[in-house]
Amino acid sequence: MKISELGEFPLIARASKYFSSVGMQNPDVSLGIGDDCAVWQPSESSYPSVLLTTDTLVEGVHFLQQTVSWRDLGWKSLAASVSDIAAMGGVPVVALMTLGLTGNESVEAVDQLFAGATECAQTFGVTIAGGDTIRSDFVIVGWTVAGTALAPDRGPARVLRRSAARPGDIVVVTGWCGSSAAGLDVLLRECGGVQSLVLAHQRPLPRVREAQWLLSRGIECATDTSDGVFESCRLIAEASRVQVNIDARVLPVHDDLVRFAREESKDYALYGGEDYELVFTVTPDALSDLLEEWGRSFELPLTVIGRCEVLPDGVQWVTVAHSPAGIHRFSHFGSETQ
Amino acid sequence: MKISELGEFPLIARASKYFSSVGMQNPDVSLGIGDDCAVWQPSESSYPSVLLTTDTLVEGVHFLQQTVSWRDLGWKSLAASVSDIAAMGGVPVVALMTLGLTGNESVEAVDQLFAGATECAQTFGVTIAGGDTIRSDFVIVGWTVAGTALAPDRGPARVLRRSAARPGDIVVVTGWCGSSAAGLDVLLRECGGVQSLVLAHQRPLPRVREAQWLLSRGIECATDTSDGVFESCRLIAEASRVQVNIDARVLPVHDDLVRFAREESKDYALYGGEDYELVFTVTPDALSDLLEEWGRSFELPLTVIGRCEVLPDGVQWVTVAHSPAGIHRFSHFGSETQ
């Protein structure tokens, strides 16, 4: 069987089977495969847990030279890894760059890449401390980011996990859905005029402060929307063994997205990736206080999009009421589960 | 100007200029660009420093399908990053994988990759705790490894640095030089019969225990030979602002390499990469005790290959007495300094 027939998630499951068989599996390392970051809590230590994540963008697969400037590529490639730290409620601290170049790039272009990455690092308080340069037949930009979990008291790390949702929990998303994917299409069609979408695509803002705030308010379950809201819900559902039921009608879409995509806007919202918003769950009792307090701290909207239920027989992780046609689904290796 | 005209090290210098300009440069992060790992010593913490490194192998650039099996690729790709931790005298703990596949690979092949990586992880006590799968037009295998520096006492991290050599220091190398590069040529020419070289190429052994031992014996300066002994000496010379003078005649080459390459064996030894031995410096006073103690702990040979001198006017970082022709030099982006 080929990898393209197997699909991405079964591939990860196979990797996980091998890697977790390691006899000397370190008890200090938790979560690992199956959440946004690996968590390493050194024993006999008062130090907060170390969070680790890595993300790589490949030219032609994750970006096209005509839709992203070198400077924006620097920003958005680093933002993708910073968002993984945010999705755990952590503090990003150190970044390492992996840079694959053909050699035909101009020095000025690559300087712009460094400048954009530096802007992102400054914005989120990250120090870029090394990396690896490689020759490659197309451009590769990858970032490893390490950070700390909040609450440096002894005991297990406090992080936002995908696996902490319970039946009855309310599902909430920050900000707007689908803007980045729509921004890409704006650029590809060269139709212009919807700057907020283009900006969402080129200069995404990982929700680092917002996630830390949620963690400090007792929220336990979250992930980011790097592969779209539908996928975020599926990841939470599968990790938590619940069913997540969302209502497509209430998905928050920016006015510009409605103007650009009209009846397709909910497709973008459900399946469009690279948004880096947070999807999290909260108990019904805590919901109204949380919404009120949030409103005093952030301008970014919070939107209730669904609810967790007991997982029925015959697994369907996510249901979408009033679902659109589903035209923007993206898969790394071709086939796709559910 | 193109990147291929600029060359790899000036590229890294440019990146460094941007990344170190970040206003909020974290005082807890040291070394960074310019050594084998970034070092992150969290303040207000009794925790030993965190070491971070990342290394990526690209098909066609760093490996060919016909010269390395999937299983060996799993091993050697992880070994490259483990060696960076070893080069600092640290303890490797956690690894994240970056895996780029076309989708046309067989599932069995990729299982072998996971199995080989698992073997390497087991051998060096590393837990593989996550990663990133991407679609790519050729195979990419990258590893981020995080570890700890030895000596968890308060105060600055104790690590082996490239920058700690002083004039008068003796330069020493572990094991054999050039075996891996020669092993690759054995495979390419399909001449067979020199299994030790092939093994060095396919199953390199990072010197993790050896480096920790050296650090515990007071050695301060080291790097690995991932880009060959000549390059290791240049990195130490440049970081320490000394001149390193080596004698090509004394470079330790395995009998199999002499049999395979005859008069070219010193070329392999100087410029062949992917050996993952250690080059370190020691004061003349400490040398004989160190050699004797080493001999009681390890079977691997230690060889004195040169000496550090005061850097003369008109920078020449490395001199090679009795130098061979120099046919195996490798550069990532075409042009090369010195």
Describe the protein in words:
The structure is a homodimer of 338-residue chains. Chain A has helices spanning 3-6, 8-19, 70-87, 107-124, 179-189, 195-202, 208-216, 229-240, 255-261, 265-271, 284-297; strands at 29-30, 38-40, 50-58, 91-101, 127-135, 140-148, 170-174, 221-224, 242-247, 278-282, 302-310, 318-321. Chain A is α+β, with helices and mostly antiparallel strands. Chain A has two domains: 34-148, 2-Layer Sandwich (60s Ribosomal Protein L30, Chain: A); 162-321, Phosphoribosyl-aminoimidazole Synthetase, Chain A, domain 2 (Alpha-Beta Complex). In chain A, the strands form two sheets. In chain A, strands 1-2-3-6-4-5 form a six-stranded mixed sheet, with helices on one face. A six-stranded mixed sheet of chain A has the order 8-10-7-11-9-12, sandwiched between helices. In chain A, helix 3 (70-87) packs parallel to helix 4 (107-124), helix 3 packs parallel to helix 7 (208-216) and helix 5 crosses helix 6. Chain A is globular, with a radius of gyration of 20 Å. At the A-B interface, helix 1, helix 2, strand 3, strand 4 and helix 4 of A face helix 1, helix 2, strand 3, strand 4 and helix 4 of B.
